[in-house]
Amino acid sequence: MGTELLAPLDLAFWHLESDAHPMHLGALAVFAPDGDRLPGPDALLELLGTRAAAIPRLRMRVRDVLLPVGGAAWSVDKDFDVHRHVKRVRLPEAATAGEGEAGFMAAATLLAGELMEQPLRRGLPPWQMYLIEGAPDGPFAVLVKLHHALADGMRAVAIGAGIFDEIASAAGRGGPGPAPGRVRPVPPRSWMPGPRQVAGLALGRIEDLGRAFGVGASLVRASRLDLRGAPALSASSSGTRRLATADLDLEAVRRIRRAAGGTGNDVLLAVVAGALRRWMLERGEPLPGSDPRALVPVSRRRPGGTAAAHGNRLSAYLLGLPVSEPDPWERLRAVRGAMDRNKSAGPLRGAGAVAVLADQLPSLAHRFGAPLAGNAARMLFDVLVTSVPLPRSALSLGGCPLRALYPMAPLARGQSLAVALTTYGGTVQIGLVADGKALPDLERLGRCAEEEVAELLTLLPVSAAP
């Protein structure tokens, strides 16, 4: 793998970063010991390092280039040393003593928040991995940090496939797990376009520019000059990070979806809206005069495409979270209707498609315009809510089954909260990332999400009973 220019959206993420707003996403993977098969921490650390070093993408660093002006490129770090990236951290014994898995999770998420505060070091491949140890023979965790320029959610999953083992399913899908990180570079084009292809490329470029113009116009119309909203979601940035997790029963979500129609994602977005409402009322905060807006990312990768190539491929929808609606079922109906309208319009137009606009801007605009664009994010949305798909197969590390994986999204300037969701092992797992000073009670927000699902279940029509 040689030199590769950063795609426009990757370049935007690279330049959006500041010390107070690092642009890395991540995940906290929690593993359970499997009897006598628990390998020692040294063996686990060596396993993580060996597999990470075998992934070509993780050996790439970002460097500036002369052309295009303002651009940057991925190039192989000739001095790559995996030990700079894979590290071991042991939790204090007092933090987990006598509290079992609950104590480990509390201590691990607190530590992970502190580690997620720290920007990745520039000049090196932009990723970090931490083996978090608890009590001997107890659960352990792996915290993964990947710069958003390096990976979107789908590409992060592809990288993870080179780190973790796949367990053969009960249906008999035997065989070894994925080979350690064989991410193939995109082969260069070897054909010269003829007149018809040139005309097609030119027409496609005109259509792209027209789409970008439409997105820009929608962006202007959707921007809010009055930034008064929920105080906790619009607090000034402190540069600190706090993490919290929540677990929702997947079958409960499916029962609600079958009764309400729509998609499981509609249900989860409504759960986030209801959780925010409960949490604001418990805090004694007045509900905002206008419902907070969520930016809901949408993958633009083609089915069957290579998740590890072509840079970030994202768009997004804007969604008003109906926190002012007191009825949970009506909140769900409102979310479903709004998402149906978003899908009818498509992910390539509308104010939420800011990533599509970013794809059309020149490199120099990203280098000098990123800080301005970052500060303007607050005018467009209040909270990021993203879903990350995981493989359906069970995963493990060193023979220890993966018990849970909590995804983590970066915080944009002007935002205090990001919500990421994934499904694994019959559970919807939620990773909450927040400004540590704006949302010190973040754990309570996670409990509110669980309570929202429980209330929706009690409101199911009798015909929807299991």
Poorly predicted tracts of residues = 168-222, 303-308
CATH class of the largest domain: Alpha Beta
Q: CATH architecture of the largest domain, please?
A: 2-Layer Sandwich
Structural class: alpha+beta
Annotated CATH topology of the largest domain: Chloramphenicol Acetyltransferase
The CATH superfamily of the largest domain is identified as Nonribosomal peptide synthetase, condensation domain
| Helix content range | 25-40%
DSSP summary, beta strand count: 16
Number of helices: 12
Which radius of gyration do the C-alpha atoms yield? Answer: 22 Å
Give the N-to-C terminal Cα separation. 53 Å
Helix and strand pattern: EHEHEEEHHEEHEHEHHEEHHHEEEEEH
The largest beta-sheet arranges its strands as 5-6-7-2-14-13-8
Domain O-acyltransferase WSD1-like N-terminal: 6-267
Catalytic activity: an acyl-CoA + a 1,2-diacyl-sn-glycerol = a triacyl-sn-glycerol + CoA
EC number: 2.3.1.20
Domain O-acyltransferase WSD1 C-terminal: 311-456
